[in-house]
Fold these 2 entries.
Entry 1:
Amino acid sequence: MILDKSLIQQHNEALAPAQQKKFEFLKEVLQDEGHNVPAILDQLATFQIAIPSWALGTGGTRFGRFAGGGEPRSLEEKIEDVGLLHALNQSSGAISLHIPWDIPQNASAIKQLAASFGLQFDAVNSNTFQDQSEQEYSYKFGSLSHTDKHVRDQAIAHNLEVIKHGIDLGSKALTIWLSDGTDFPGQQNFRRSFQRTLDSFQQIYAALPDDWNVFIEYKPYEPHFYSTVVADWGTSLLFCQKLGEKALGLVDLGHHLPNTNIEQIVSRFLMEGKLGGFHFNDSKYGDDDLTVGAMRPFQLFLIFNELVEGMTSAEVNNPPLSWMIDASHNVKDPLEDLLQSVEAIKIAYAQALIINRKALEKAQEQNDTAQAQEIMQQAFRTDVRPLLAQARLQNGAALEPIPFYRQNKIRQKLINQRGVKTYTTGL
Ligand SMILES: [Mn+2]
């Protein structure tokens, strides 16, 4: 479905006067605090977050799945949906594909289709956490870490194939989330499974084009419940350091044990120039994959504080980051959910941009704890949404994406086009 741009224009014209009032007020407040508002607007307007191809359908749990209708039936329709999101917010200009769920049959046609919506291909994702019907060896007891070389070779070959698909689409990175691990004490030798994995990673690393990166994503548990091979940021960093400069860590917000200080992990990765990207989502208990910012907006703000501080500090030399959403929703319209996630990410980013950094540094140097907290709270308590709306207006996106989506009955139109009982590939 291709959105008629004149509808967005009409929508914006009706809402512009009220927006202008809110924006002018906030602009004055921020300028009085010494901020360069046009520069902040530009940063927000150019910020792009990749949409995962697996989040466009309704997510399921191991107990059931309740599809909402009108889900994309093919890679082409997934790209159309991301194009729709991008037209609505002008901040979703990239898509992250998952192989083998989204193998492009005709890469140049797919690339052209994506370009027609202004989309690029972010990191491609390999999958050795499931067995595919045509594969010879099972991943039941692991893939890149498996005790049997045949299984490891098969998993390596899959990753090389994913890189090839990525090259055809103009992607520049491979994300490996390795689900390998054990469920019972004594099941495997930790050192040897690390070493086998390192050997597999090295073979994949050797196949990376010069301008590519590999992102090593970590996760402490699930699907395995005793140990995982890449359990935490330390293990991810260790692999990256052993592999070389093209290997970078990937932080998925849901892949930490409860109450982990994720912002400090971000700072450590940045300090080493080893942060590759992010999988944004939110959670209350584990890897809940809830809408970004739905549970812990303050944590998200603190993470963006470290990101903005690190990316603007002369002491930090980290490559540009890949920003991606990795969520899966069981009860919401996936497109509305993704609009909410992108908004939450940009709110946290905008709040981090308006932290009075000079004053914060001074407070830190003087051990003025209360003042440091005042500065952080001042930014976090500021309603920055008029800034985000202004950036959308500047970019020709919808001032209010979700009301626009609802008023124009977009889901109903997708159902009419694709049917009620459509199933998308993904989680
Ligand atoms: Mn992830």
Entry 2:
Amino acid sequence: MSMSGPFREGDRVQLTGPKGRLNTIILASGKQFHSHRGTLDHDGLIGLPDGSVVENSAGVKYLALRPLLNDFVMSMPRGAAIIYPKDAAQIVARADIFPGAKVVEAGVGSGALSLWLLRALGESGSLVSFERREEFADVARGNVVGFTGQDPANWRIEIGDLVERLPDAVEAGSIDRVVLDMLAPWECIDVVSDALTPGGVLLCYVATVTQLSRVAEAIRGSGFFTDPESNETLVRGWHVEGLAVRPDHRMVAHTGFLITARRLAPGTELPQPQRRSSKTSYGDEDVELWTPGAVGDRTVSDKSLRRRVREAKAGAAASLARENGDADEVELEVVEVEGELLSESPSESGDDRND
Ligand SMILES: C[S@@+](CC[C@H](N)C(=O)[O-])C[C@H]1O[C@@H](n2cnc3c(N)ncnc32)[C@H](O)[C@@H]1O
């Protein structure tokens, strides 16, 4: 299958018809593309440059383009949910997938990420993809062969659980990069650290913040990696037409989080001790995030805070007294509180205006 030049037999071609409707065909001499709007001869496309417009038997026009990998993964058959192109691009960059890299991924799912990884690691690299479910592996293989036109010699799928299969499937310390896209990547940290070469990169893609927290703490707690870094990628399309230039109304808001860490050399301890992993540990920075100043509220002086506590208590006492029918007591309580307030220094009443 050719990726550029004039269309040839065996090429996958995406036809954009009226109203933007998409159809993908694989060119075969003598075949026809049928729609309720007429027929289009494949032979009429073979030999034309990529990006040509052709007419079918009823004069309906179609734009013919080879699908980009981006187009292909979004329309290919799916077993499991795929990694979207925006995340795949970040994975290739943040996991530093280079030509010649030895890469392990799990699970293979529908093979979307496998396609991006194979493209980035090139013919001199190799990819071993692990998948628990054989039928998903079949979908992935079908998609990879469907897009590339071959069963890549440098790609192998291992059926089974990564934790059980990885130690026998690859030589310890021989893998440059590991990418995990699965429900529970924290269960795989030990086997992955054995497989990775010192300096190698582990990247996990997870959908929820609870998974993110759990895998980050597992990576930290193992002591085999640098402190993990996390992020997510938001891509917002724009409508650009004449003077109507604005963000698109709709976007894919959330897909997943990426977390990366690098394998330390065996026996290495980081120069600065990493924070101890604990489900309940918070740093000063985290606490600061919840203070009124950090969330945009005005900060409160200690004196003002004490006064507010007294006011709140007085309010509570007044409510209780009112409930009990002790109206005199209510008045008395309030007067007492006000008296206490007035007895405070004049500078404190100044605070009141400033905070
Ligand atoms: C979301 S899918 C992966 C999608 C894939 N990255 C893609 O872009 O098409 C997650 C896959 O991981 C597989 N899986 C989950 N845990 C696994 C494990 N421990 N070992 C191997 N495969 C696993 C599941 O069966 C599932 O197919």
